[in-house]
Amino acid sequence: MFSKSTIKKWHFCQTLFQLIILLGILILGLIRHHFLLSHKAVASCVFLLILMIFICLQFTLLKNDLNPNSHLVQFNNYWESLNITFSLQLTLYLLIKLLSRYHILNSTFWIALFTLYSLIMYIPMAKLALCKVKNVWGRILFLAFIMFSLLLSAPDTFIDAKKPAHWLLTLNQSGFSGAIIFAIIMLIVMHDWGFQTPHLRISKRASKTIIGIIFLFIIVRCLFNGFNVSESWTSILTSWDFHLAKSIAIPFFNSLEAGLAEEWLMRFCILSLLLRYFQNSHSQILWSVLCDGLIFGSWHITNLAAQSASATLEQMLFACCSGFVFAAIYLYSDSILISIGYHALFDAAAAITTGSLIMFSPSTFDWQITIFLAVIDIIFAYFLISGSRKDTIISNLKHRKLYI
């Protein structure tokens, strides 16, 4: 898409532009106290100077390919991926505040412009740093627990600078525009790591009967997740509520974001990396699905920031077993679109009825039903990756060069 020299020039100009912006803000901060960052001018200046030093270190990537296997260079790849992503967000955030303060056009224009630019502004980071990370588990953990959150939150950072039009607020606060950013960057990174672009169409090798069973399972699980309100086993089949929440825009886009971004991360990126890692194992598929689900479940521990420990623990168990199914469906159908659609519908079904994806502290019955559904998910996932269905998965993986 871009030559190496073009990427390096882009990275150089982008880094230089960041330094110029921060230098301008620093000068304004010295002239006018309490400017932008803090009520304490000294603290603001020190922060800006430290940030400028970190940005200067980004020039090391221009020579980062001289000894790519050294431990120092590999550490630098992790560090600069984090450094560039964070500093770019913060620099644009400060620039929007600066432009808004002096009323240079309106905030909606600048936030829309920077949101569009954010679709491509991480490409130099991806090509010069993230693509060069070699360790498989380093890739998996770094993507899941650091890069995913940073890239997804990028457009929302711009919103904090100044409130824009409602449609832009919805797209950015929901994380949907961040999900598109993440998908673009990871498509580039995975290609450089030697993985094919995920397929959208269902594999011709898949049985129509099994695909029908998968769609039936998806419909039943989504309906149950969103609209079943039973509080005991005796009313499990009779208690339904199809009323919608008053405000569903943000939760609905949150669901779309989860479907796209989380499936892109967990099934396209991490599951592919796991399949390659276990490539020489006789239980390659089983181990890959198992680890993918466990990572997906563990990853939800970050929700502790917004909900109780018991709710988070239940969600981790629920997500873990759901992850097994998402992975199994993706491997059998060979279509990332089905996994994305199932995940988005699954979350949307709950979001449009409650108005939120935040879970409340579970009751005893909630735990019982969660464990019951977890067992069903495990059985269904194992069904899809065993017997003749496993042969279909093996054919799909051979076609993608992920099975020996």
Uncertain spans:
none
Using only C-alpha atoms, the radius of gyration works out to 23 Å
Q: What is the percentage of strand-forming residues?
A: under 5%
Enumerate how many helices there are, as a single number.
15
Average of the residue pLDDT scores: 86
Tell me the total number of β-strands: 0
Distance between the termini: 30 Å
Please give the share of residues in helix.
Answer: over 70%
Task: Describe the overall structure.
There is one protein chain. The protein is mostly helical and about 400 residues long. Helices cover about 70% and strands about 0% of the residues. It contains 15 helices and no strands. It has helices at about 5-30, 40-55, 70-100, 105-120, 125-130, 135-160, 165-175, 175-190, 210-225, 250-275, 285-300, 310-335, 335-355, 365-385, 385-400. The longest helix is centred in the N-terminal third of the chain and has 31 residues, at about 70-100. The two termini are about 30 Å apart. The model has no long low-confidence stretch (mean pLDDT about 85).
Topology:
Elements: H1 4-31, H2 41-57, H3 71-101, H4 107-118, H5 123-128, H6 136-161, H7 166-173, H8 176-192, H9 208-227, H10 249-277, H11 284-299, H12 309-333, H13 336-354, H14 364-384, H15 387-399
Core attributes:
15 helices; mainly alpha; 404 residues
Summary, kept brief:
The protein has 404 residues and is mainly α.
